[in-house]
UniProtKB/TrEMBL annotation:
Entry keywords, A to Z: Hydrolase, Signal
SUPFAM superfamilies according to UniProt: alpha/beta-Hydrolases
Ranges of Polar residues composition bias in the record: 29-45
Protein name: Peptidase S9 prolyl oligopeptidase catalytic domain-containing protein
Superkingdom to which the source organism belongs: Bacteria
Family: Belongs to the AB hydrolase superfamily.
Region ranges (Disordered): 27-77
Signal peptide range in chain numbering: 1-23
Start and end residues of each Peptidase S9 prolyl oligopeptidase catalytic domain: 158-360
Organism: Terrabacter terrae
Length: 362
């Protein structure tokens, strides 16, 4: 069997897609919990290939570089996320609502590569600038989603502890701009929006530049993993609650391939990529795990043993792959914990999150 590096290099010129979704507390999706990777062996996770997003151009027999240009990566691929020039507009504060004696809360928008993304921001009262956190939510049907409706506990707790918290709605959600290509690209646009949120915060006068973290839950945990490999160095630290798999095939099989209501999406993906069985190289390049060698930020993962949507095994595999690359990663396991942690386990998790951020956002 060819090595993972060879498989990746062979596939870089082919159409690539990154995808998966997961359930939020009010939008659970079922499916098999079996984890399978397009590029791992039965002996455990493989090491990531070199972090380069493209392979070298072939060389002519005479030693003169060939004129064949490097193929442009598919816009839905991890190499495309790595190569993308991110263009974030300034944060614009809108109406105030939901403020407390500890922070002011506003409707907010910012530009993300030409799209307007809405969200909610909490700004601590007092003299700034403050460290900041981007919050990437889990799956909620975009047609039913309303501005800032999720991750309320995390936003409140962290704002009360002195962090600016920017909860992003993603494209196609709430008052954000429409992106009709996002589903066909298996939602890589969400990663673009999270990265641009970090860049927008870094320009805000009330934010302490360079002291920004990224937190995601469920599907948003997958956004965290993709953002870390696409734009290393932007965030100082990251936290993932019950994240989806770092192997795209696991997520595609669980939520797209076997769901009859998503037959059209599955067909569109397979028509471009082929099946994971027939085209493992293409599918390997869609997974953030393949590029874990690029990660520079410490990562904390929270996961319950009774998670009904994202099996704990996925996080264990992610941690093993990151550790194989020598990365700083910590997995906190909650016995009996469901996909959405309840108190007192959630209270423990947010305390650990605050301690983690205090350590790395100094």
């Amino acid at each position: 069997m060819p090595s993972p590096t060879a498989l990746v290099a062979a596939a870089l010129g082919a159409p690539l897609l990154l995808g998966a979704c997961t359930a939020a507390p009010n939008a659970t999706e079922g499916g098999s919990a079996t984890s399978r990777t397009a590029y791992a062996t039965s002996n455990g996770p493989v090491r990531s290939p070199a972090s380069s997003a493209t392979s070298a151009s072939p060389t002519a027999p005479t030693g003169t570089p060939a004129s064949t240009p490097t193929p442009t990566p598919d816009p839905a691929s991890i190499p495309a996320l790595i190569a993308l020039r991110y263009d974030a507009g300034d944060l614009r504060l809108g109406r105030e609502g939901g403020s407390t004696n500890a922070y002011r809360q506003y409707f907010v928008t910012y530009e993300s590569n030409g799209l307007s993304i809405s969200g909610r921001i909490n700004i601590p009262r007092g003299k700034g600038p403050f460290p900041a956190v981007v919050l990437a939510h889990g799956y909620v049907d975009p047609a039913a989603y309303t501005n800032g409706e999720t991750m309320l506990r995390e936003r409140d707790h962290l704002a009360r502890h002195g962090y600016v918290t920017l909860h992003i709605d993603y494209r196609n959600h709430a008052q954000s701009s429409r992106d009709p290509s996002n589903d066909a690209n298996l939602r890589t646009g969400y990663t673009v929006d999270a990265i641009n949120a970090g860049l927008a915060l870094d320009k805000a006068p009330f934010v302490d530049r360079g002291r920004i973290a990224l937190i995601g839950r469920s599907m948003g945990g997958g956004v965290v993993l993709s953002a870390l490999v696409a734009r290393p160095g932007l965030f100082k630290a990251a936290v993932a609650y019950a994240p989806v798999s770092s192997d795209t095939v696991d997520n595609f099989d669980k939520w797209v391939r076997r769901d009859t209501s998503r037959a059209a999406a599955a067909k569109a993906v397979i028509s471009r990529l082929g099946t994971p069985e027939a085209q493992p190289a293409r599918w390997a390049t869609t997974s953030p795990r393949t590029y874990f060698g690029r990660v520079t930020e410490p990562l904390l993962i929270h996961h319950g043993t009774a998670d009904e949507d994202c099996p704990l095994a996925w996080s264990r595999e992610t941690v093993a792959a990151l550790k194989a690359e020598g990365k700083s990663v910590q997995l906190d396991v909650y016995p009996g914990g469901r996909h959405t942690l309840a108190s007192p386990q959630w209270d423990t998790s947010i305390r650990r999150t605050a301690e983690f951020l205090a350590t790395y956002l100094r």
